[in-house]
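Researcher: Let's do a round of design. I'm pasting the structure tokens now; please hold your answer until I've finished.
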């Protein structure tokens, strides 16, 4: 896998993992017993913890990308004709 294709694969994996991690631990104000502030969406999360989710997505993506890189580099799955 070349550098460009490796970066592209990592970015795609990162976004997929980020969107999977995004809803974890989200609680709306009505679930915590709070009232939403005036002008805020009633279903908006009270504490989304985006930086933690970005970190989790980065670490998980790095592991998944490493496995995919190893599979492609060791030619377990080859995308090139013999």
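Researcher: That's everything. Go ahead.
Model: Designed sequence:
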């Amino acid at each position: 896998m070349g550098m460009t294709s490796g970066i592209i694969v990592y970015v795609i994996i990162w976004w997929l993992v980020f969107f999977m991690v995004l809803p974890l631990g989200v609680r709306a104000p009505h679930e915590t017993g709070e009232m939403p502030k005036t002008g805020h969406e009633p279903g908006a999360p009270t504490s989304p913890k985006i930086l933690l989710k970005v970190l989790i997505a980065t670490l998980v993506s790095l592991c998944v990308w490493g496995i995919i890189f190893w599979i492609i580099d060791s030619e377990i799955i080859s995308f090139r004709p013999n």
